[in-house]
Design a protein that fits this description.
Elements lengths: L1 H8 L11 H4 L9 E5 L5 H8 L5 E6 L15 E4 L14 E7 L8 H10 L1 E12 L4 H8 L22 H8 L5 E9 L5 H11 L11 E8 L3
Parallel strand pairs: 1-2, 1-4, 2-3, 4-5
Antiparallel strand pairs: 5-7, 6-7
């Protein structure tokens, strides 16, 4: 685990900070809900949720401790440092209303087992909010087929800490590997920054027929059912 931890500790702090407003927008409207975030990073998302009274209890889990970040913020009820590939979650079945896993599952050796663990701590009719990078994105394909390169980077689709890679169909299969998970929302995110507008425009003119090639990541809102 030491080498794995050191790899993340060598990343720039910006990699772990800034609230995930896209995932927060999918939260149910229930100020009394309990929210768990896997891969909390600097804790900014959980602090935003608590500051805006979107939940009564927020809990964060991450692999590494990040000093001088919101991991130490008093608004976060509990923080645990856990390797989800090796350890269990320290909560009873059905404890949380919402589990957030923003760009986390692709970093794990066994994301299928992780989905099972996350599902177990969500109550029936609760939800999981998941985001995953899309390896079918046009820039990834350009690098592979025209540059002939799978060069790893410090962030993005080719992040060197990514263990697994998914297309949209594979993401759906990963989530639905747990039979009592039902996908309610699939939200394509074309990209961040200045490329976002161009991609959205291209997607509009192609009537979304090439959506999977213009999408950098997908967001999912997933409901846990009784069966």
């Amino acid at each position: 685990m030491k080498m794995k931890t050191e790899t993340y500790q060598n990343k720039e702090l910006a990699y772990f900070t800034n609230p995930r407003l896209d995932l927060i927008s999918l939260l149910p409207e229930n100020p009394q809900q309990k929210v768990l975030e896997i891969g909390m990073g600097g804790g900014d998302t959980l602090v935003h949720i608590k500051q805006h009274r979107l939940a009564s209890e927020v809990v964060g889990i991450d692999l590494v401790e990040l000093p001088n970040t919101n991991q130490q913020n008093a608004l976060i009820n509990q923080v645990h440092y856990i390797d989800l590939d090796k350890e269990e979650l320290p909560y009873d079945a059905g404890y949380f209303d919402v589990v957030i896993a923003g760009d986390v599952l692709e970093h794990l050796i066994d994301p299928w087992e992780a989905v099972k663990k996350l599902t177990s701590v969500v109550k029936v009719n609760g939800c999981l909010l998941i985001s995953l990078p899309n390896i079918r994105d046009m820039y990834a394909l350009y690098s592979l087929f025209f540059k002939g390169s799978f060069a790893y980077t410090n962030r993005g689709i080719f992040d060197k800490t990514h263990m697994r890679f998914f297309c949209k169909k594979d993401m759906i299969a990963l989530i639905e590997s747990e039979k009592n998970l039902k996908i309610e929302v699939i939200m394509p995110i074309q990209n961040f920054g200045d490329k976002n507008f161009k991609r959205k425009l291209f997607n509009k003119f192609t009537l979304s027929m090439l959506e999977e090639f213009t999408t950098a990541q997908y967001l999912f809102k997933v409901i846990k059912t009784a069966y």
